[in-house]
Amino acid sequence: MFKNRPRKRSLSLMCFQIRRNYHIFRKEFHRLPRRIKLIALCIVALALCFYYQVFLFANYEPLRDPIFLDIPKCPACYGEDLCPSFLAGELQLTGLSAVYPVHFAFVKNAYFGSFRERDVVLKKLAHNRELKQFDDKLCHNLGIKSCLVSEAIYESHLYDYAVHRDFESAFGSLSTTFNCSTPRVITRAMDALESSKSSLNGRLHALTLLTINPESIILRMFPPKKGWPFPALIGSCGRFIVENNVGTPLQNFIQHPFSVRAKLGYQLLKMAKQLTEGDPELGIYWTDVSFDNFAVDYNNTVYYIDLEHVIIVDKNPPDGQLSSWSIPHEAKFDDCENDNGCVSFRVEDFCQHAQSDFNFYAVCRNLLSSYATDEKYKTNLMHDIPDDIDQQYGIGSLLNDCAKPRNRLGRFRAAEELIIALAAVTEST
């Protein structure tokens, strides 16, 4: 009858020690300065919030949540071809992307994941505020502040474009990328969207992409299987597109040996040439060139991974040929210090010339030459050229001529000489 007494005694002792320690802690805590107490309380509160979030979302799978994917907003979305795979759990987030509370720090709305043993990138193609602005505009057309976006799109100008198949007006007005659009450009785009243009909702998907970010359309027009230096588009669901993860950011290579950086610089210049000349009918001009917009795979192959800000130009002369058409456009050097985004342009210049040196200008001005003093990384990709190599090939001078030429058409010549010189350096190292 007395065998439970030791257990009761130990519980009583434990309770006594807890009360005693609590009183000691309370007494010591009150002795702390007011500022220290406030900081301590804030830390405790943040820690509790963090652990609550972790506990709350421990079993949450956002990629299987239609609300997270914005599926209910379709057809005001990017497509639905990959939705069965999303909802079946075939796509998984990886790394920090897998920690749901951390998603709020992903300002650019790009996440890393895996899909059928492939590394992928999932993109929402816009900031949350930009997506909200798009939704608000659809609702505003109905004269109300909030609405069902999936229904509002049927009362919008996008619906009018889709019903009447007025792609020429839509492409020219909805996206800067297609401001120079001609029937040839639109035909190429719609041929790439063959599966979309056959249905009304498919056309609304395409027009939504045009309005928000045309990257998915461009990836279909210029797929990597045809030699273009872009990621492969896998598909879309709601307001997510899925692309191959092609590697690590270019900025990770800034401090690599010159032999590695020379190979990367060579590829960047070849890429600029390919975008300008690689398609017999269309030219592609990148207008947002920064380290963040390129990735490098395990073979040190470079890819351009952010195609939101490109302009597509028909190389054939428009009706009523412009006098300037056959004269190559030369981009003007913009001398703004410590600002990597300072290459300026006018869309009209691209539309009025069959060819421009802008791709070479952007890559030399923003990444390669001594003028490319990136505000974030404080250097350029081709820094510290070995003296013997520079003396033999004059790479430093050619890079600066590529960014700021001294003679007419000098940028084209400097770029060609750089490609030859860097190819020789790459082969000899």
Structural notes for this entry:
The protein has 429 residues and is an alpha+beta fold. The chain is 46% helix and 10% strand. It has 18 helices and ten strands. The protein has helices at 5-31, 34-56, 66-69, 83-87, 128-140, 149-152, 157-164, 167-174, 183-192, 194-197, 200-212, 215-221, 258-277, 347-351, 358-368, 387-393, 395-403, 410-428, and strands at residues 91-93, 110-115, 118-123, 233-237, 240-244, 248-249, 282-286, 294-296, 302-304, 310-314. Strand 2 and strand 3 (118-123) form a beta hairpin.
End-to-end distance, in Å? 88 Å
Helix content: 40-55%
Quickly give the structural class. Answer: alpha+beta
Number of strands: 10
Task: Identify low-pLDDT runs.
Answer: none
Shape, please? Answer: globular
Largest sheet: 5 strands, antiparallel
Gyration radius (Cα, Å) is 28 Å
Number of helices: 18
Strand order of the largest sheet: 1-2-3-5-4
Question: Concise description?
Answer:
This protein is 46% helix and 10% strand. The protein is α+β, with helices and mostly antiparallel strands and 429 residues long.
Architecture blueprint of SSEs:
Blueprint: H1 5-31, H2 34-56, H3 66-69, H4 83-87, E1 91-93, E2 110-115, E3 118-123, H5 128-140, H6 149-152, H7 157-164, H8 167-174, H9 183-192, H10 194-197, H11 200-212, H12 215-221, E4 233-237, E5 240-244, E6 248-249, H13 258-277, E7 282-286, E8 294-296, E9 302-304, E10 310-314, H14 347-351, H15 358-368, H16 387-393, H17 395-403, H18 410-428
